[in-house]
Design brief:
Length: about 325
């Protein structure tokens, strides 16, 4: 298995709903979960009749992807590990300093190990790892279709700064699988990802990079105190209790509407599941599952991929 890295530069706004459920037009997220990216790749691949190819690649672990995570210039960012370790030096830190650190969601790769050392030494200065990736924009729009008069609503979307965007890490078994992924990703950039694609949102260009040595060492660090998820993951039922034992994790609700013109005559929702988020730290890695979340009466399966990458976290 080998790794590759892709930076996505967004030429338009990005609307990605939050994972809390309910209406999400007036709120949104900066990053894209790995299962959302997988679903978008599947939808895009249907246009070229390659849906079975890309599904098979993920199902057989020929392809595994991370969340689409932020970058700023040459700095790549990782999720902040979900960990708690008692530390007397941290307890003595100022309340303002601890609050700032708590609010930070992503850590620059260059300071990731320094942050981990903060569990046993002095806490890292939060001002040194805080970056502005862009701005959340909220616009008032008017809905006309289906209404006798215009109905105003708010639309929130993320606008990245010129030097920022998102990146994806891909683990691949063979070059054929990687080629299938790249073809779908490049096509997806032209079509757009996320909500309001019909309004031009979610379009991006793709640039391929070599995975930096430091990141590669973390990806290959399978003997560490913890293994941190880089995307949405869920072990098989039979191994769930074992995997969660002595771990620190966040559970996310994963649902939403089925985006397929051939699935049913009217819009339908996927079955809701709960999965582990990026940043969750477990004692071991797991393969994960791909679930069919279709409802009775649907024309085809609706897959959610709960397989992702891990990095080793040593304290």
């Amino acid at each position: 298995m080998a790794y590759s890295l892709y930076k996505l530069k967004f030429s338009t706004g990005l609307h990605i709903g939050k994972h809390v459920g309910g209406s999400s037009l007036d709120d949104g997220s900066m990053t894209i979960h790995s299962d959302t990216l997988f679903s978008a790749l599947c939808c895009e691949s249907t246009k070229s009749n390659r849906i079975k190819e890309i599904y098979d690649c993920f199902e057989k672990n020929r392809l595994i992807i991370s969340d689409a995570l932020p970058f700023y210039k040459d700095d790549l960012f990782l999720p902040k590990p979900i960990l708690f370790m008692p530390n007397s030096k941290q307890e003595n830190s100022s309340a303002i300093k601890k609050k700032k650190l708590k609010d930070i969601e992503y850590l620059p790769l260059s300071k990731f190990n320094a942050y981990l050392q903060g569990f046993s030494e002095d806490i890292i200065d939060p001002d040194s790892i805080e970056y502005e990736f862009g701005t959340m924009v909220v616009e008032t729009k008017n809905a006309i279709k289906g209404y006798s008069e215009a109905m105003p609503y708010n639309l929130a979307y993320w606008r990245f700064n010129q030097d920022s965007g998102l990146y994806i890490i891909v683990k691949y078994e063979d070059k054929q699988a990687l080629s299938i992924f790249e073809d779908c990703l490049w096509d997806l950039g032209l079509s757009g990802i996320g909500g309001k694609q019909s309004s031009g949102f979610g379009k991006f260009s793709v640039e391929k990079f070599t995975v930096p040595k430091l990141l590669l060492s973390l990806l290959n660090k399978e003997k560490a105190d913890y293994q941190m998820l880089l995307g949405i993951g869920l072990p098989e039922d039979r191994e769930l209790d074992k995997m969660l034992e002595d771990g620190w994790y966040r559970v996310l609700r994963r649902g939403g509407f089925i985006r397929s013109e051939t699935y049913a005559q009217t819009p339908m929702k996927k079955r809701t599941i709960f999965a582990l988020s990026s940043g969750s730290c477990l004692k071991e890695r797991f393969d994960g599952v791909i679930l069919d979340l279709s409802n009775e009466g649907g024309a085809h399966p609706v897959w959610r991929c709960c397989k992702t990458l891990f990095v080793g976290v040593s304290l």
